[in-house]
Structures
1.
Amino acid sequence: EQLQIIEQRILTRDGLIEMANRLGVYAADLAEGRAPQADDIVADMRARTEIETTGGAPPRGVAQATIVRVSFEAPTAAMSAAVTNEIVTRILAENVSIRTGVANDTLQFFEDEVARLDQELATRGATILAFQEANLNALPDSLEFRRSQQAAAQERLAQVERDAALLRDRRTQIVTLFETTGVVPEAPAADTTAADRQLAAARAELAAALSVLSPQNPRVRVLQARADALAAQVAAEAAVATTPGEGTEVAPETTAAMTAYDLQLADIDGQLAFLTDQKTQIEATMEALRLSIEATPGNAIALDTMQRDYENIRVQY
């Protein structure tokens, strides 16, 4: 196909006239006063020129090398050789021109594709980053950590509910005993409050976890944070219990009116209020964890799709 295109380009009207004048194909005619017309020159040059192609890929059988046979009929061997060599030179030049054009087009295509894919990679990377930031608490790589948080929160909630049930039973017993006998039972020691018991349980659980896990383990970190928070709560309660409020004055008659019975009930009610707040916070945390865990599978599928598309584009790039 390329040789057919080259032949058509070489045998154009302007090309044949230019070659005939430059090589002096009709110099003898001009010397004798016979100036051939342009149309006659073109027709005569085409008649004398023969470009024959053999070989190539036949419809059936083994492909062979493509051979081009070029000849030009002239009155002298020198003239025939000169024109034939000129035609061969033009064939080779046209072949180089075609190959160069195809190579340049291919190179330009690759350069355009590289630029396009580079921009596409940047866009896809920004999309993945934005998705990860928008779903920071519901990504698959932190699923196990959030499940451990959920389990720890469930344990804390169960402990809070047990402590609250014990306090309600104790309050009922105190009220029943006082109303029946008028006797007020002895108040428990200060270190047996609900916060103290929770702190002791948290520290025991942390010690058990550290015996089999490293300090950097996510579950150990959760237990450590829980123990630290409970320790701070116990310290705060102790400070409130031992330090009177700034600017608060308590009348002697009011203190005297606060019997041991009232003090015990007030202490139990305060502990129940604290446990109620704790329960509300734990339930809110568990709800947030539940929602994030439920959203994780969908986020994982979406993230895998975006990362797979990114990887495909990177391979193309």
2.
Amino acid sequence: MNKQDLLEKLKKEGCPEKILEAFAKVRREDFVPVNTPKSMIYEDLPLDTGYKQTISQPFTIAVMLHLLDLEKGQKVLEVGSGCGYVLALISEMTKSKVYGIERIKELAEQSRKNLKNYDVEIYNRNGKYGLEEKSPFERILISAACKEVPKTLLNQLTDKGILVAPVKDSDEECSLIKIIRENNQFIERERIPHFSFVKFVV
């Protein structure tokens, strides 16, 4: 599968145009290890990035971006930003500075190199505590499976802000959930089952 094949597949699955445009602009090959077979780069599959981590399946990423409901100019944080691919897509969609937290030092360093052409700041720290010094955020994405969403991250949302996270249903499966902050209440608005993510490590 090449890039155009992937875009056609995502389009058939109902991916919105503005998300397709971001996928079209961002080169996935810039975010995978150099030894990744060329034929695999644009398959709709997760790919190994080393350190027992993966770059998520494009369809899964598209669902997360759809739930985030991104708009230009928004301030966005991704927790568990890995190789930086999703941050690049978010940057394309918001046209504003975005922020990432990655716990694994080597991945944080590599993602800074991967994102050299994007307006992104990467922090190597425990994602459970978020990025208080840059908060509040209009959107927060957690890209690893949680037993429950850390309250510290919810509290770093603006009013009407949205947080999207995979929450464990079992050892193997997660549901992607969308939470909106309204008058200091955190309201779950959507829940989509049958996804798989690496574990959120604190």
3.
Amino acid sequence: RQIKWQKSLNENGNLKIGYSKISQELFWEILNKYQVDDKSEVYFATKNEEFRIHRKEGGVWMYDFTDVKRRKIIEFHGDMYHGNPKKYLPEDCPHPFRKNITAKDMWEKDKKKRELAEQNGFEIFVVWDSEYRWGNKKEVIKKCLDFLEIKK
């Protein structure tokens, strides 16, 4: 019964492991501004898959939106899942499922992930969920396009 329930959540879009529906909305908006021939080297979850970089200690980091040709990555951070520093103190534990992880722990993990991408020649731009969801979506899209150097 549990397996059937889990499968139903995954297939019906109510549970997405590693990404949110709203992040994918943003990424499709961005992709629609690309020239047709530039789209093939762009990776994100609902287009093809998230781009991966292997870690020395084993495993991989997965990046939310990656333009391999331009060597640019956009990370879409959920406020609770990444401990938005505008909302949480370092000692807060905002993650809804991992209550023993502090915001500071999250920041250190994100820093390691960012550093690996930079070591591999990528630049990173971070969009916070609340900035896009509750802010000016057009302005966030513009910032992303400017970062990616996409002509509007």
